[in-house]
Amino acid sequence: MATTQDTPRQPLFYVEPQPLNLPQHRDMRVQNGDYAFTSEALAMPAVIGEFADLSRTYPILFAAGENGGPIALLGVDATNTFVSNGAWEEGVYVPAYIRRHPFALMALTDTATPEEYVLALDVGCGRITTGGSDGAPLFDGEEPSAFVKEMLNFCSAYSADGLVTAELCKALRAKGLLLDQRLDGTMPDGQKIGLDGFQVIDAKKLTELDAETVVEWHRRGWLAACFFHLASLQRVGEILNRRAKIATPIKPAV
């Protein structure tokens, strides 16, 4: 029997993901929802294919640790500065991690190969209903609905992008290009904020890469991703300003 200690922690925002299957989910539908479930998110996982879009608005950082990946910073505490009354700020790019919810690819085994990943549905997210005619159906007769096929393609592309992103992170660490960083600031009301546990690329070391590595990284799209990341760091001040305009006390990040 699983215990609290040996039960795997679910990915961010996912409550009860289940492999999608006809017998169990035949009559289920996905209702329209908003972004209120992200309202206390400090940051969001990011993949390399969206760095260009993210860098226009969000600071892109790297989570510290051997397996830490890139994240888009949404605030400086448990307050997503881009969501108000469940709505994402109009005209602002919404990270792909959020747009795929309540779907995701799920590994069938701990040592899964690409063929052993299936589309999963978060049946505990609050948007899933059974019966009726409202919402998007999961199945059209015995076949997955057009909506499900679209989400499968989206999740598959996201996961493939995630593998490329992991390769980039591994290469950055192998070259010693990631620096531990800390953000400290003071809000207009005098509250102190401190944010650590993240890393940034060492711009000087990046320019010192050998020619062979530069060519390889350019061809793989990694070099552009590095520069998008560095450019995005200019957005940190904007995140502080956004938080200062929200009239609630600083809350511990979760």
Quaternary structure state of the chains depicted = single chain
Order of strands in the sheet with most strands? 3-5-4-15-14
Instruction: Estimate the strand proportion.
Output: 15-25%
Number of strands: 15
Taking pLDDT < 50 over at least 5 consecutive residues as the criterion, the unreliable ranges are 1-8
Which class best fits the helix and strand makeup?
A: alpha+beta
Give the ordered list of helices and strands: EHEEHEEEEHEEEEEEHEEHHHH
Question: Helix amount, in percent?
Answer: 25-40%
Rg of Cα set? 20 Å
Terminal CA distance = 28 Å
Helix run count: 8
Mean pLDDT: 91
> How many structural domains are formed by the residues?
1
Coarse morphology: globular
Can you describe what's shown?
- It is a single chain.
- The protein is an alpha+beta fold and 254 residues long.
- It has one domain.
- Helix content is 31%, strand content 24%.
- The chain contains eight helices and 15 strands.
- The strands form five sheets. A five-stranded antiparallel β-sheet has the order 3-5-4-15-14.
- A hairpin with a 2-residue loop joins strand 6 and strand 7.
- The longest helix has 29 residues.
- It is globular and about 60 Å long.
- The N terminus is likely disordered.
